[in-house]
From TrEMBL:
Organism: Pseudomonas cremoricolorata
GO molecular function: DNA-binding transcription factor activity; transcription cis-regulatory region binding
InterPro entries xrefs: Homeodomain-like_sf (IPR009057), HTH-type_TetR-like_transc_reg (IPR050109), HTH_TetR (IPR001647), Rv0078-like_C (IPR049484)
Keywords: DNA-binding
Protein name, per record: TetR family transcriptional regulator
């Protein structure tokens, strides 16, 4: 009986993973609005009922794809931070890298265009993860005396909002991506410099 339950759980997880992986590829190539769920489910050998069972609807599937990508993005940003020579540079590179990721086709299409068009913003769960990571970094910088005393919960939200809005601006359809990225990175440096204790150096 236990083996049967494990096998069923494995099948459920396998079906869910297959739907997310295939949707991720389709949304990145065609966009959310242009992806047909009937064609999509048939392509992976599943029924539309399987989609509704696991995600409720097409929007629910998009949320699952967004959360998977955002988790990967945060893992990448952690590695970037960890590779930096000090905590301030790690924080700075984390923010800069987030902006640079706006040039990645999959992130540009799914996170910065489709999520905004369908939901008005990135889903709350993905936002919470990004804000929490920023707040943890700010708390450590504050404890180290690198940044001036400030309420880190609100500052983390403000920085998250700033880099997210800038990323969406960079990723707008028909935008000059590299020029917008350059402008956004310059503005980010000015913003982050304002956090530091006067005379503090990495």
């Amino acid at each position: 009986m236990a083996q049967a339950r494990r096998s069923r759980a494995h099948m459920i997880e396998e079906t869910r993973a297959k739907l997310i992986a295939t949707a991720r590829s389709a949304f990145a190539e065609h966009g959310f609005a242009n992806t047909s769920m009937d064609d999509f489910t048939a392509a992976v050998g599943l029924t539309r009922g399987a989609l509704h069972h696991h995600f409720g609807n097409k929007e629910g599937l998009l949320i699952a794809v967004i959360e998977e990508i955002e988790t990967e993005v945060n893992e990448h940003l952690r590695r970037v931070s960890a590779a930096a020579p000090n905590r301030w540079e790690g924080f700075r590179q984390r923010c800069r890298t987030y902006l640079q990721l706006a040039l990645e086709p999959e992130i540009r299409r799914i996170i910065l265009q489709d999520a905004r068009a369908v939901f008005g913003d990135v889903p709350a769960a993905a936002q919470s993860l990004g804000v929490a990571e920023l707040q943890a970094a700010l708390d450590q910088l504050l404890a180290d005396g690198v940044i001036a005393a400030l309420p880190t919960p609100v500052m983390a939200r403000m920085i998250y909002g700033a880099v997210t809005e800038a990323s969406c601006w960079i990723a707008e359809p028909d935008a000059e991506l590299n020029e917008r990225l350059h402008q956004a990175l310059d503005a980010l440096e000015r913003l982050l410099d304002g956090l530091r204790v006067t005379g503090e150096h990495p």
